[in-house]
Design a protein that fits this description.
Number of strands: 14
Number of helices: 15
Low-confidence stretches: none
Number of domains: 2
CATH architecture of the largest domain: 3-Layer(aba) Sandwich
Radius of gyration: 23 Å
Strand content: 15-25%
Strand order of the largest sheet: 9-10-11-8-7-12-13
CATH class of the largest domain: Alpha Beta
Structural class: alpha/beta
Largest sheet: 7 strands, mixed
Order of helices and strands: HHHHHEEHEHHEHEHEEHEHHEEEHEHEE
Mean pLDDT: 96
Distance between the termini: 47 Å
Amino acid sequence: MTPAELRERREALHAAGVALRRRPACDTLRALEQVLESWRDPGSAWRRALEAQLPAATGYSAQNVRAGLELGLEHWTGAALRALVERELGGAERLDATAPSAVRGFDTTAVLLAGSIPMPTLLALLAPLALRSPVLAKCAARDPITAPLVARSIAEVDAALGRCIEVLQLRRGESDCLRALLEADCVVATGSDEAVAEIAAQVRPPRRLVAYGHRLSVAALAGEATRGERLERAADALARDVALWDQLGCLSPIALYVVDGDADSAERAAHALARALEALESRWPLGRVESAAAAAIAHERGAAELREAAGHDVRVHASNTARWTVIREADAAPRPAPLHRFVRVHPVRGSSGLLAALAHYAPHLAAVALEGFDADDDALPRALAALGASRLCRFGAMQAPPLDWHHDGCGVLTPLARYTDYEL
């Protein structure tokens, strides 16, 4: 594709958007609700196609993809989308309103996708369309499957709406085409901090940039949840959070912090988590691990084993085939997280110790899962929110955020919207 061809496609999308905005916004919303419901249905053609094609493209095991979609899409209903529009925009009718205020999307929105988990891609494509803004999307390099399937599912439900989305498979190095793509009125970019910074350098006002950079998540365990049956249940739930999508998403926990308890609490937690990960390997096998990631895992695992052999207070729990690794550390010092089911378990003293440990991750903190803390004490949740966490949840729920969760502390639709207040 040439930059001129890309601009022609953007102009065609612009024209389709003009036509789309002539019909009631509620019609578009109903179509998008139907699209969501079709993706939630395990028997739909689109869901079956994604489950069949995604493993080969991304390296996830088929069992992991199936389980991840089932959990992640469970509450992404048409009703949830309508509630999101109502909460953030005041209802679909606001998109057709004039006085006293109106909401509208941009004439075109470019969406630069990243990662390999399907749910963020689905939402990133539907959100601008809910504002009747046509979408020109660049596929994620690691997932060339999800975006084209979503676009085709939209066209099947609503042909006019389908003409308002186009998906591109740009190759690495096509910088001229990327610059043309970034000429859209609104640009949504997801990726590493470095990648987002490169995009930001090319998007200047009045064009809007909505950027989502690097994020990570952690878990914390305390009280009665550090022993007995409650520990076993907590470990099983956290293992699911780790194993789904092979720990490659921003909501995948990279570390477990064990707060207070006795001297053996962290070791008990590490041992329980290791057993749970081993049990899950037969249900949701670890997928493909690229050579660089495998080398990082081997390096960190080997370094921990050397520290253990040298008499340091560290313990390595790992499968013989490196399908999972749990390292119980002696303190909360931050260490590399190679992912692919690699978790560090840290002991910390009290909530203050937990907050001090997490301060290192504050600029990139997404979710914190809590188990065993006093439900009536909101001091810790408030402190975590002040630290920057945009989602607090229970163990086992990390991979199932609601449709309207505030990713990076922002709304889903409002960053993509323009507002006009009528004061005449």
